[in-house]
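[09:14] KT: can someone run the structure on this one? pasting the chain below
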Amino acid sequence: MADRPSFQFYPGDWKKNQKLRFCSWAARGAWIEILGLMHDSPEYGVLRQPSKSIAQAIGAPVNLINELILQGVMHGCEKGACASFEYQAKHGRTLGEKVELVPSQAGPIWYSPRMVKDEYVRTNRGKSTRFGDDFGDSPKGGIGANFGDAPEAPPNTSPSRRKGDGSSSSSSLKAPPKPPRGGRTPGEVNFKTWISGLPDGASAIPEDHPVWRYASKIGLPEDFVSLEWAWFEDAYRAKPRKKYSDWPGHFRNAVEKGWGHLWWFDSAEQVFKLTTAGRQLQLRLEAEDAQRDADPIEDAA
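[09:31] RB: done, structure tokens below
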């Protein structure tokens, strides 16, 4: 069973899923039940039972399962050789290497591309993502959502923390030397120089960076952190004169202070929600993905 009690769900993106729109109300209800089974599956997002057994498990007629298969909502096959499922991280005009998430194999096997991809992104966060040198997308973590993905290996050394960047202190991080009069701290570079100079396979924001622990501690969704990175990247690519010695630390400062005003905290529900600016950025990234994908809705199913 999965170690997470829930998954995020985006009603707007669910309703925009064209494949689901061609399914009956009953089939849509069956699909949300199947997503629950896939979420609880030891192999996250994947079921290896025959379609008839899946129908019995959710208490639905098998014809509803067949409808989901026919409309391309539920992927896989009942028997014979099933086609493989590959994922390719992308951002802007840059494409990462293809990764085979579901190898070609004999059925029965059924899966949700969105869940399989998100699980890969979650377990490989910081190993080739939009936060790395290939600028792959980053995870949304939500079924029906249509924003970002990722993977990338952490760098060999921890980034130094720039004095006064707002990051919390750490015994393993030493303050950089004071800059000479009229000069900058040694090692300060602009964003473009820093990101393009990362070693092959290195991550801009490593998996063990304090920003992830901070987000987890306050309950800030990882996809919101990914949105902040998109804002951060856009902002500092447009400011070549801005130079820092610790860009990851500067990004953490952006997350902690909510630069860009992408989210707000709903005290009544005790959750973070996107602001209009955050939703606009999310929609822009989704539109960019849609332009690159032959079938942008497939991952949402």
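[09:33] KT: thanks! Residues 126-183, 294-301 have pLDDT under 50 and may be disordered.
[09:34] RB: yep, looked fine to me
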